[in-house]
Protein backbone atom coordinates (compact mmCIF):
# COMPACT_ATOMS: atom_id res chain seq x y z
CA UNK A 1 0.00 0.00 0.00
CA UNK A 2 1.31 3.46 -0.87
CA UNK A 3 0.17 7.00 -0.11
CA UNK A 4 -1.75 9.24 -2.47
CA UNK A 5 0.99 11.88 -2.27
CA UNK A 6 3.65 9.39 -3.33
CA UNK A 7 1.47 8.11 -6.15
CA UNK A 8 0.94 11.65 -7.40
CA UNK A 9 4.67 12.39 -7.13
CA UNK A 10 5.56 9.24 -9.10
CA UNK A 11 3.07 10.06 -11.85
CA UNK A 12 4.43 13.60 -12.13
CA UNK A 13 8.09 12.56 -12.21
CA UNK A 14 7.42 9.80 -14.75
CA UNK A 15 5.64 12.30 -17.00
CA UNK A 16 8.54 14.75 -16.69
CA UNK A 17 11.02 12.01 -17.57
CA UNK A 18 9.00 11.19 -20.67
CA UNK A 19 9.13 14.79 -21.85
CA UNK A 20 12.91 14.60 -22.11
CA UNK A 21 13.00 11.15 -23.65
CA UNK A 22 13.73 10.77 -27.36
CA UNK A 23 10.85 9.24 -29.25
CA UNK A 24 13.13 7.37 -31.61
CA UNK A 25 11.75 6.28 -34.96
CA UNK A 26 8.00 6.87 -35.01
CA UNK A 27 6.31 3.52 -35.56
CA UNK A 28 4.02 3.15 -38.56
CA UNK A 29 1.47 1.54 -36.26
CA UNK A 30 0.69 4.98 -34.82
CA UNK A 31 -1.27 5.77 -37.97
CA UNK A 32 -3.72 2.94 -37.36
CA UNK A 33 -4.35 3.54 -33.65
CA UNK A 34 -7.52 5.32 -32.61
CA UNK A 35 -8.66 5.15 -28.99
CA UNK A 36 -12.32 4.69 -28.16
CA UNK A 37 -13.89 5.24 -24.75
CA UNK A 38 -15.69 1.91 -24.48
CA UNK A 39 -12.66 -0.36 -25.04
CA UNK A 40 -9.11 -0.49 -23.71
CA UNK A 41 -6.31 -0.71 -26.25
CA UNK A 42 -3.84 -3.49 -25.46
CA UNK A 43 -0.47 -3.27 -27.20
CA UNK A 44 0.86 -6.82 -27.50
CA UNK A 45 3.97 -8.40 -28.96
CA UNK A 46 7.27 -10.13 -28.26
CA UNK A 47 9.52 -8.61 -25.61
CA UNK A 48 11.95 -5.91 -26.77
CA UNK A 49 9.98 -5.12 -29.94
CA UNK A 50 9.12 -1.60 -28.73
CA UNK A 51 5.72 -1.84 -26.99
CA UNK A 52 6.55 0.71 -24.29
CA UNK A 53 8.13 3.02 -26.86
CA UNK A 54 4.99 2.89 -28.99
CA UNK A 55 2.88 3.69 -25.94
CA UNK A 56 5.06 6.71 -25.19
CA UNK A 57 4.94 7.89 -28.81
CA UNK A 58 1.16 7.66 -28.71
CA UNK A 59 1.10 9.55 -25.43
CA UNK A 60 3.36 12.39 -26.52
CA UNK A 61 1.96 12.79 -30.01
CA UNK A 62 -1.77 12.31 -29.51
CA UNK A 63 -2.67 12.34 -25.80
CA UNK A 64 -0.16 14.63 -24.02
CA UNK A 65 -2.56 15.38 -21.17
CA UNK A 66 -3.15 11.71 -20.29
CA UNK A 67 -1.99 10.32 -16.97
CA UNK A 68 0.83 7.80 -17.41
CA UNK A 69 2.01 5.21 -14.90
CA UNK A 70 4.73 2.61 -15.33
CA UNK A 71 4.20 0.03 -12.58
CA UNK A 72 7.76 -1.28 -12.82
CA UNK A 73 8.91 1.90 -11.07
CA UNK A 74 10.50 0.72 -7.76
CA UNK A 75 8.59 3.46 -5.94
CA UNK A 76 5.37 1.63 -6.83
CA UNK A 77 6.46 -1.71 -5.40
CA UNK A 78 3.72 -2.75 -3.02
CA UNK A 79 0.98 -1.08 -5.06
CA UNK A 80 -2.18 -3.08 -4.34
CA UNK A 81 -5.70 -3.14 -5.68
CA UNK A 82 -6.80 -0.88 -2.80
CA UNK A 83 -4.42 1.81 -4.07
CA UNK A 84 -6.51 2.17 -7.22
CA UNK A 85 -8.92 4.21 -5.09
CA UNK A 86 -6.14 6.78 -4.59
CA UNK A 87 -5.36 6.75 -8.30
CA UNK A 88 -9.07 7.25 -8.93
CA UNK A 89 -9.05 10.33 -6.68
CA UNK A 90 -6.04 11.79 -8.53
CA UNK A 91 -7.80 11.27 -11.86
CA UNK A 92 -10.93 12.99 -10.54
CA UNK A 93 -8.94 15.94 -9.15
CA UNK A 94 -7.25 16.40 -12.54
CA UNK A 95 -10.47 15.99 -14.52
CA UNK A 96 -8.63 13.29 -16.45
CA UNK A 97 -10.30 10.85 -18.88
CA UNK A 98 -7.23 9.25 -20.54
CA UNK A 99 -5.01 6.73 -18.81
CA UNK A 100 -1.83 4.96 -20.01
CA UNK A 101 -0.80 1.94 -17.92
CA UNK A 102 2.59 0.37 -18.63
CA UNK A 103 3.44 -3.08 -17.19
CA UNK A 104 0.08 -3.19 -15.42
CA UNK A 105 0.23 -6.97 -14.93
CA UNK A 106 2.30 -6.61 -11.76
CA UNK A 107 -0.80 -5.44 -9.86
CA UNK A 108 -3.20 -8.21 -8.85
CA UNK A 109 -6.80 -7.39 -9.74
CA UNK A 110 -5.97 -4.50 -12.10
CA UNK A 111 -8.68 -5.55 -14.55
CA UNK A 112 -11.52 -4.63 -12.15
CA UNK A 113 -10.27 -1.04 -11.95
CA UNK A 114 -9.88 -0.81 -15.73
CA UNK A 115 -13.36 -2.19 -16.36
CA UNK A 116 -14.81 0.36 -13.94
CA UNK A 117 -13.10 3.23 -15.76
CA UNK A 118 -14.41 1.91 -19.07
CA UNK A 119 -17.94 1.02 -17.98
CA UNK A 120 -18.76 3.88 -15.64
CA UNK A 121 -16.40 6.72 -16.47
CA UNK A 122 -15.89 6.43 -20.25
CA UNK A 123 -12.11 6.56 -20.03
CA UNK A 124 -9.65 6.10 -22.87
CA UNK A 125 -7.16 3.48 -21.69
CA UNK A 126 -3.99 2.05 -23.20
CA UNK A 127 -2.27 -0.97 -21.64
CA UNK A 128 0.99 -2.82 -22.18
CA UNK A 129 2.20 -5.89 -20.35
CA UNK A 130 5.42 -7.82 -20.19
CA UNK A 131 5.57 -11.45 -21.23
CA UNK A 132 7.60 -12.22 -18.10
CA UNK A 133 4.64 -12.58 -15.73
CA UNK A 134 1.59 -12.20 -17.93
CA UNK A 135 1.74 -12.76 -21.66
CA UNK A 136 0.47 -9.71 -23.48
CA UNK A 137 -1.85 -11.96 -25.47
CA UNK A 138 -3.48 -12.93 -22.19
CA UNK A 139 -4.13 -9.37 -21.02
CA UNK A 140 -7.21 -9.32 -23.21
CA UNK A 141 -8.71 -12.39 -21.55
CA UNK A 142 -9.18 -10.34 -18.40
CA UNK A 143 -11.14 -7.70 -20.33
CA UNK A 144 -13.28 -9.94 -22.50
CA UNK A 145 -15.42 -7.86 -24.82
CA UNK A 146 -13.91 -4.60 -23.59
CA UNK A 147 -10.59 -4.45 -25.36
CA UNK A 148 -8.96 -4.01 -28.75
CA UNK A 149 -5.56 -5.61 -29.32
CA UNK A 150 -2.81 -4.10 -31.44
CA UNK A 151 -0.01 -6.46 -32.42
CA UNK A 152 3.46 -4.99 -32.55
CA UNK A 153 6.30 -6.71 -34.41
CA UNK A 154 9.97 -5.77 -34.67
CA UNK A 155 10.65 -3.17 -37.39
CA UNK A 156 9.17 -3.89 -40.81
CA UNK A 157 11.36 -3.58 -43.89
CA UNK A 158 10.11 -0.02 -44.50
CA UNK A 159 10.90 0.94 -40.90
CA UNK A 160 14.28 -0.78 -41.11
CA UNK A 161 15.22 1.23 -44.20
CA UNK A 162 14.10 4.46 -42.53
CA UNK A 163 15.98 3.63 -39.32
CA UNK A 164 19.16 2.62 -41.16
CA UNK A 165 18.80 5.43 -43.73
CA UNK A 166 18.84 2.99 -46.65
CA UNK A 167 17.13 3.07 -50.03
CA UNK A 168 14.76 0.22 -50.87
CA UNK A 169 16.73 -2.21 -53.00
CA UNK A 170 17.99 -5.77 -53.20
CA UNK A 171 21.00 -4.75 -51.12
CA UNK A 172 18.94 -3.32 -48.27
CA UNK A 173 16.67 -6.38 -48.47
CA UNK A 174 19.73 -8.57 -47.90
CA UNK A 175 20.74 -6.44 -44.92
CA UNK A 176 17.26 -6.68 -43.44
CA UNK A 177 17.27 -10.44 -44.02
CA UNK A 178 20.46 -10.73 -41.99
CA UNK A 179 19.83 -8.15 -39.25
CA UNK A 180 16.08 -8.30 -38.71
CA UNK A 181 14.14 -5.57 -36.97
CA UNK A 182 14.74 -5.52 -33.21
CA UNK A 183 15.44 -1.82 -32.49
CA UNK A 184 18.03 -2.28 -29.74
CA UNK A 185 20.08 -4.72 -31.82
CA UNK A 186 20.04 -2.36 -34.80
CA UNK A 187 21.32 0.44 -32.58
CA UNK A 188 24.21 -1.57 -31.16
CA UNK A 189 24.96 -4.33 -33.68
CA UNK A 190 25.75 -6.66 -30.77
CA UNK A 191 24.50 -10.21 -31.50
CA UNK A 192 24.71 -11.14 -27.82
CA UNK A 193 21.54 -9.07 -27.34
CA UNK A 194 19.69 -11.49 -29.61
CA UNK A 195 21.27 -14.46 -27.84
CA UNK A 196 20.08 -13.10 -24.50
CA UNK A 197 16.62 -12.31 -25.86
CA UNK A 198 16.27 -15.88 -27.11
CA UNK A 199 17.33 -17.24 -23.71
CA UNK A 200 15.00 -14.87 -21.84
CA UNK A 201 12.05 -15.94 -23.94
CA UNK A 202 12.71 -19.60 -23.16
CA UNK A 203 13.63 -19.27 -19.50
CA UNK A 204 11.59 -16.33 -18.22
CA UNK A 205 8.57 -16.34 -20.51
CA UNK A 206 8.11 -20.08 -20.81
CA UNK A 207 10.04 -22.27 -18.36
CA UNK A 208 9.33 -20.23 -15.22
CA UNK A 209 5.83 -19.20 -16.19
CA UNK A 210 4.61 -22.67 -17.16
CA UNK A 211 6.69 -24.65 -14.69
CA UNK A 212 8.70 -26.49 -17.36
CA UNK A 213 11.09 -28.80 -15.54
CA UNK A 214 12.94 -30.23 -18.51
CA UNK A 215 14.40 -26.91 -19.66
CA UNK A 216 17.08 -28.62 -21.74
CA UNK A 217 14.48 -30.33 -23.93
CA UNK A 218 12.65 -27.02 -24.39
CA UNK A 219 15.91 -25.36 -25.44
CA UNK A 220 16.75 -28.19 -27.84
CA UNK A 221 13.33 -27.90 -29.44
CA UNK A 222 13.61 -24.12 -29.83
CA UNK A 223 17.10 -24.39 -31.32
CA UNK A 224 15.88 -27.04 -33.77
CA UNK A 225 12.95 -24.86 -34.85
CA UNK A 226 14.98 -21.67 -35.28
CA UNK A 227 17.51 -23.66 -37.31
CA UNK A 228 14.75 -25.02 -39.56
CA UNK A 229 12.46 -22.08 -40.30
CA UNK A 230 10.11 -22.42 -43.29
CA UNK A 231 10.21 -26.21 -42.97
CA UNK A 232 7.41 -28.62 -42.11
CA UNK A 233 7.41 -29.85 -38.52
CA UNK A 234 5.18 -32.25 -36.62
CA UNK A 235 5.02 -33.26 -33.00
CA UNK A 236 5.45 -36.93 -33.77
CA UNK A 237 8.57 -36.50 -35.92
CA UNK A 238 10.20 -34.12 -33.46
CA UNK A 239 9.43 -36.51 -30.62
CA UNK A 240 11.61 -39.07 -32.40
CA UNK A 241 14.34 -36.66 -33.54
CA UNK A 242 14.74 -34.94 -30.17
CA UNK A 243 13.89 -38.00 -28.05
CA UNK A 244 10.89 -36.61 -26.22
CA UNK A 245 8.91 -39.14 -24.22
CA UNK A 246 5.54 -38.03 -25.61
CA UNK A 247 4.22 -36.19 -28.67
CA UNK A 248 1.84 -34.32 -26.38
CA UNK A 249 4.83 -32.68 -24.66
CA UNK A 250 6.16 -31.42 -28.00
CA UNK A 251 2.75 -29.99 -28.89
CA UNK A 252 2.49 -28.37 -25.47
CA UNK A 253 5.85 -26.70 -26.02
CA UNK A 254 4.70 -25.56 -29.47
CA UNK A 255 1.84 -23.68 -27.83
CA UNK A 256 4.18 -22.06 -25.29
CA UNK A 257 6.59 -20.97 -28.04
CA UNK A 258 3.74 -19.48 -30.05
CA UNK A 259 2.22 -17.71 -27.03
CA UNK A 260 5.57 -16.06 -26.34
CA UNK A 261 5.62 -14.76 -29.95
CA UNK A 262 8.84 -16.58 -30.75
CA UNK A 263 7.38 -18.83 -33.48
CA UNK A 264 4.36 -19.10 -35.75
CA UNK A 265 3.05 -22.51 -36.81
CA UNK A 266 0.90 -22.30 -39.93
CA UNK A 267 -1.31 -25.21 -41.03
CA UNK A 268 -1.83 -26.82 -44.40
CA UNK A 269 -4.89 -25.38 -46.10
CA UNK A 270 -7.89 -27.66 -45.99
CA UNK A 271 -11.61 -27.13 -45.78
CA UNK A 272 -11.52 -29.84 -43.10
CA UNK A 273 -10.60 -28.56 -39.64
CA UNK A 274 -9.49 -32.06 -38.68
CA UNK A 275 -7.01 -32.24 -41.56
CA UNK A 276 -5.61 -28.86 -40.59
CA UNK A 277 -4.96 -30.23 -37.11
CA UNK A 278 -3.32 -33.52 -38.10
CA UNK A 279 -1.10 -32.34 -40.97
CA UNK A 280 2.41 -31.02 -40.37
CA UNK A 281 2.78 -27.30 -39.69
CA UNK A 282 5.20 -24.87 -41.28
CA UNK A 283 7.30 -23.00 -38.74
CA UNK A 284 8.41 -19.37 -38.96
CA UNK A 285 10.25 -17.16 -36.48
CA UNK A 286 9.25 -13.66 -35.35
CA UNK A 287 12.45 -12.12 -36.75
CA UNK A 288 15.13 -13.14 -39.27
CA UNK A 289 17.85 -11.43 -37.26
CA UNK A 290 16.95 -13.66 -34.33
CA UNK A 291 17.31 -16.62 -36.72
CA UNK A 292 20.70 -15.41 -37.98
CA UNK A 293 22.02 -15.00 -34.44
CA UNK A 294 20.72 -18.24 -32.94
CA UNK A 295 20.46 -20.81 -35.75
CA UNK A 296 22.86 -23.73 -35.62
CA UNK A 297 22.44 -24.59 -39.27
CA UNK A 298 25.79 -24.96 -40.99
CA UNK A 299 24.55 -23.47 -44.25
CA UNK A 300 23.30 -19.95 -44.75
CA UNK A 301 19.80 -21.19 -45.68
CA UNK A 302 19.08 -17.93 -47.48
CA UNK A 303 16.06 -19.34 -49.27
CA UNK A 304 14.27 -20.43 -46.10
CA UNK A 305 15.15 -17.28 -44.17
CA UNK A 306 13.97 -15.25 -47.15
CA UNK A 307 10.64 -17.11 -47.07
CA UNK A 308 10.42 -16.35 -43.34
CA UNK A 309 10.90 -12.66 -44.08
CA UNK A 310 8.18 -12.67 -46.74
CA UNK A 311 5.84 -14.49 -44.37
CA UNK A 312 6.37 -11.80 -41.72
CA UNK A 313 5.63 -9.07 -44.27
CA UNK A 314 2.15 -10.49 -44.82
CA UNK A 315 1.59 -11.69 -41.24
CA UNK A 316 1.78 -8.11 -39.98
CA UNK A 317 -1.50 -7.45 -41.79
CA UNK A 318 -3.15 -10.85 -42.12
CA UNK A 319 -3.23 -13.28 -39.16
CA UNK A 320 -4.85 -16.10 -41.16
CA UNK A 321 -2.18 -17.73 -43.34
CA UNK A 322 -1.81 -21.32 -44.60
CA UNK A 323 0.46 -23.26 -46.92
CA UNK A 324 -0.98 -25.21 -49.88
CA UNK A 325 0.21 -28.69 -50.74
CA UNK A 326 -1.42 -31.15 -53.11
CA UNK A 327 0.73 -32.38 -56.02
CA UNK A 328 2.89 -29.29 -55.65
CA UNK A 329 3.36 -26.71 -52.91
CA UNK A 330 2.49 -23.01 -52.69
CA UNK A 331 4.17 -21.29 -49.78
CA UNK A 332 1.54 -18.83 -48.54
CA UNK A 333 -2.24 -18.80 -48.82
CA UNK A 334 -3.37 -15.53 -47.27
CA UNK A 335 -6.88 -14.80 -46.05
CA UNK A 336 -8.43 -11.54 -44.88
CA UNK A 337 -11.83 -10.83 -43.38
CA UNK A 338 -13.48 -10.98 -46.80
CA UNK A 339 -11.82 -14.21 -47.92
CA UNK A 340 -8.77 -15.12 -49.98
CA UNK A 341 -6.40 -12.17 -50.45
CA UNK A 342 -3.25 -13.51 -52.07
CA UNK A 343 -1.44 -16.63 -53.20
CA UNK A 344 2.30 -16.21 -52.74
CA UNK A 345 5.26 -18.31 -53.81
CA UNK A 346 8.67 -17.36 -52.45
CA UNK A 347 11.99 -17.98 -54.23
CA UNK A 348 15.24 -16.24 -53.27
CA UNK A 349 16.53 -16.51 -56.84
CA UNK A 350 14.79 -18.04 -59.86
CA UNK A 351 16.98 -20.18 -62.09
CA UNK A 352 16.45 -22.87 -64.77
CA UNK A 353 16.62 -25.61 -62.15
CA UNK A 354 13.83 -24.29 -59.91
CA UNK A 355 11.63 -22.23 -62.26
CA UNK A 356 9.21 -25.01 -63.22
CA UNK A 357 8.80 -26.22 -59.63
CA UNK A 358 8.08 -22.74 -58.30
CA UNK A 359 5.62 -21.91 -61.08
CA UNK A 360 3.83 -25.27 -60.90
CA UNK A 361 3.10 -24.89 -57.21
CA UNK A 362 1.58 -21.48 -57.77
CA UNK A 363 -0.34 -22.51 -60.91
CA UNK A 364 -1.89 -25.41 -59.02
CA UNK A 365 -2.96 -23.22 -56.09
CA UNK A 366 -4.37 -20.56 -58.44
CA UNK A 367 -6.50 -23.15 -60.23
CA UNK A 368 -7.61 -24.75 -56.95
CA UNK A 369 -8.84 -21.39 -55.60
CA UNK A 370 -9.78 -20.06 -59.06
CA UNK A 371 -7.65 -16.96 -58.50
CA UNK A 372 -6.52 -15.38 -61.75
CA UNK A 373 -3.38 -13.68 -60.42
CA UNK A 374 -0.63 -14.95 -58.16
CA UNK A 375 2.54 -13.48 -56.70
CA UNK A 376 6.07 -14.85 -56.80
CA UNK A 377 8.45 -12.90 -54.56
CA UNK A 378 12.21 -12.91 -55.21
CA UNK A 379 15.23 -11.05 -53.91
CA UNK A 380 15.71 -8.91 -57.00
CA UNK A 381 14.11 -10.44 -60.10
CA UNK A 382 11.07 -9.07 -61.88
CA UNK A 383 9.05 -10.89 -64.54
CA UNK A 384 5.61 -12.25 -65.42
CA UNK A 385 4.23 -15.55 -66.68
CA UNK A 386 0.82 -16.28 -68.20
CA UNK A 387 -0.91 -19.61 -68.76
CA UNK A 388 -4.52 -20.43 -69.67
CA UNK A 389 -5.81 -17.08 -68.42
CA UNK A 390 -3.79 -17.17 -65.16
CA UNK A 391 -1.07 -14.58 -64.51
CA UNK A 392 1.93 -14.84 -62.18
CA UNK A 393 3.66 -11.58 -61.32
CA UNK A 394 7.28 -11.93 -60.23
CA UNK A 395 8.40 -8.99 -58.07
CA UNK A 396 11.35 -8.30 -55.76
CA UNK A 397 10.68 -8.06 -52.05
CA UNK A 398 11.52 -4.37 -51.86
CA UNK A 399 8.66 -3.59 -54.25
CA UNK A 400 5.98 -5.27 -52.15
CA UNK A 401 3.40 -2.76 -50.99
CA UNK A 402 3.53 -1.89 -47.31
UniProtKB/TrEMBL annotation:
Residues 204-348 form the DUF4143 domain. Residues 38-161 form the AAA domain. It comes from the Bacteria. SUPFAM superfamilies: P-loop containing nucleoside triphosphate hydrolases. It comes from Algoriphagus aquaeductus. This is AAA+ ATPase domain-containing protein.
